[in-house]
Amino acid sequence: MYSISTLLLTGIIALMVGVAASMLYSRRLTPDSLHQREMKQHLERLQQQQKAYQHEVDEHFTDTSKLLANLAESYRDVHNHLAGGAENLCKDSISAAIISRVPDTAAGYGANDEAYENINQPLDYAPKSSPFETGMLNEQFGIEKSVKESSAYIVELPIDIDEPIEK
To answer: Looking at residue 86, what is its pLDDT?
Structure first.
């Protein structure tokens, strides 16, 4: 009914399909692939935890910023209340001193803005007294070399250059 070549070809194809199926099946169940899948799931969990933590940190600092703004506003209200009370209840010299320290919300400094105008930015280096002086950021700053120190690095060898080298 069937020829031998047809049966042989069908057998070879069935064998190839069986080998391929067994390779796929064994690849999925090997300890390495199971470990790899577990590690991938663990990594995904850690990434989700990191995202949740980052979101929590962002919320924390946003809330802290809002609370500090509320604190500054409350401090300003208390100071204004005390200054108003001092104006009504105290002598003129005391109330004038307190009122002059009331912060101005527009400028942010208060009535003593002149005191803030003369403030210079701090320097991150020591200024030089002359243009020929080495600055603090120079490699040689603070290192004084003398003739004695510089000759300490010269090594004298106990051989004479004029003599021939013996083998």
So the answer is: 79
Q: pLDDT tens for residues 105-141?
A: 444 545 455 666 777 766 656 667 777 777 666 667 6
The answer to whether the predicted template modeling score (pTM) of the entire model surpasses 0.85 is no
Categorise residue 104: left if φ over 0, alpha if ψ from -120 to 50, beta otherwise: beta
Instruction: Tell me how far apart the alpha carbons of residues 38 and 44 are, in angstroms, rounded to a whole number.
Output: 10
Domain segments of the chain: what residues?
A: 41-109
Could you identify the residue written with the tokens 């003739």? 147
Residues contacting residue 126 through CB under 8 Å, at least 6 positions apart:
135, 136
DSSP code string of 90-149: S-HHHHHHHHTTSPPTTTSS-S-HHHHHTPPPPPSSPPPSSTTSPPTTSTTTT----HHH
* 3-state SS class at 152: coil
